[in-house]
Amino acid sequence: MPKSDYIATNDDAFNVQQQTFKNGIGGYSALLGLTAAQIDAQAADAAYFDFTLKSQAVMANGAQQWTAWKNLTRAGGTVPASGAPVAPVFPAAVPAVASGIEARFRALVQSIKTSAHYNEALGQALGIEGSQRSGPDLTTIQPVIDAIISGNHVNVKWGCGGNGAYLDMCELQVDRGDGKGFGLLAYDTTPGYTDTQPFPATPAIWAYKAIYRVGDNQVGVWSLPVSVTVPA
């Protein structure tokens, strides 16, 4: 089953991940072949990111307080017993590091995961294993499509809706308004399809619909059909 990215997207969660790795890697550094310089560099990155995150929170809180005080001094109102906001107190400074903490951490983790001694349990202990992702309900999944004229072709827009890991392709069908009904247009594995059929001699309404496929089978339900008037 596919997993989510092992790097946390939320800043607070990424900070926790950095601290978890920093605090746990010491016991595995020799096993994974890491140097003291690599360990120290990640620890410095973790410390500085924690510092910047806490400093940001101090600034955000201070800005909120001073905005409220500015509004009060302009519009009037009841002044709090504490009076004007006091100057913020920042966390103790730590040595700055170069930008690109996430990129360096990702590179370090990738090198660790190539080690013959790496395993999922070790990764869980270090906080560098993504969580298991549950797939979509393949009985109800439905493509969302659109059709627009671009130049002398029709572009059929479709996507996987974030479920590309569970789908193989999209089956597209077209009805060209010639009385034949819907027929196969393409099996497309890359989102977005250009219908290269030349436009007819007279304007016509072309309709499109789509359904996902896994292997040789259709899954889910057909998209709502979309139509576009093609010129002569």
Describe the fold and architecture.
The protein is α+β, with helices and mostly antiparallel strands. The chain has 2 domains: 11-126; 146-230, Immunoglobulins (Immunoglobulin-like), CATH 2.60.40.10. The protein is built from 5 helices and 8 strands, in the order αααααββββββββ. The strands form 2 sheets. Strands 3, 4, 6, 7 and 8 form a 5-stranded antiparallel sheet that branches. α1 runs antiparallel to α3 (36-75) and α3 packs antiparallel against α4.
Shape: flat
The share of residues in helices is 25-40%
The count of DSSP E runs of length 2 or more, i.e. the number of strands, is 8
Order of helices and strands: HHHHHEEEEEEEE
Q: Overall pLDDT, averaged?
A: 93
| Number of alpha- plus pi-helical segments | 5
Q: Give the percentage of residues in beta strands.
A: 15-25%
Topology diagram in text:
Elements: H1 11-24, H2 29-32, H3 36-75, H4 101-113, H5 120-126, E1 146-150, E2 153-157, E3 169-175, E4 183-188, E5 193-195, E6 204-214, E7 217-219, E8 226-230
Antiparallel strand pairs: 1-2, 2-5, 3-4, 3-6, 6-7, 6-8
Helix pairs in contact: 1-3, 3-4
